[in-house]
Amino acid sequence: MKDWSGNTPRPGFTLIELLAVIAVIAILASLIITVGGNTLKHSRASEAAVQVRQILLAGQLYANEHGGHLPKVASDNVGLDEPRDYFYVTRNGVAETEGTALAAYMGGAEAAAAGLRAPNDAGLAEVGQPGRNFSYTFNFLINQGELQEGASEPSGFEKALSTINLYYVDDPAEKVIVYEEENPNDAFCVWFIDRPSSRFDGKGHVGFVDGHVELLPADEIYGSAELGEIVPPDKQY
């Protein structure tokens, strides 16, 4: 092979070689963008799963100190008497965590509020206006505990006197406490009304009574009696 001499101009790249280099760079760039996007999506999914686990842990810690009963679930101005006994309360569609069970077991109201907002929840209503400030919906049937005076059967809709007791849960790995609600963030914290989130390729995180979290298709969650009815009807509390 002939050595290049400093006195002779060095041949440059041909057009074909330049195009080949540009093509390789473009391919590498697209791969980097794809990998980066997937990494970001995975990171956000992992963060959301951690948030759900923290909510579950807070509920378990509360139950440990309250005879096995979970905190109550409040649905828009329902149950505003004692916030400390609720996961959080909602007033006119806005979640408040001050003095609530989540605040007590998640390091304060500010930390609890941050833990209620999924990393990829834009918080915008369908019309583009600011939406609700929470990303997670509770199973409202948690409130099917002590009967209201004059009631013939437990109902989650009234202000709960007492929630269900975890000691009576037959299949804790199959029963839901909390899940991601639909985006945009405009729901009412009620399991069988709010549609589950499909933020992650049509799936959303679901937190079960036993503390584990799964990423499930939204259509498997919505209105599922098997997931929602935590305790047998004859063992409400």
UniProtKB/TrEMBL annotation:
Q: Which UniProt keywords apply?
A: Membrane, Transmembrane, Transmembrane helix
Tell me which domain of life the UniProt entry assigns to the organism this sequence originates from.
Bacteria
Gene3D superfamilies in the record:
Glycoprotein, Type 4 Pilin (3.30.700.10)
- Transmembrane residue ranges: 12-35
Pfam families noted in UniProt: N_methyl
The family database entries (InterPro entries) matched by this protein are listed as: N_methyl_site, Pilin-like
SUPFAM superfamilies the record matches = Pili subunits
PANTHER family, sorted: GENERAL SECRETION PATHWAY PROTEIN G
Q: What is this protein called?
A: Type II secretion system protein
Organism of this sequence: Ruficoccus amylovorans
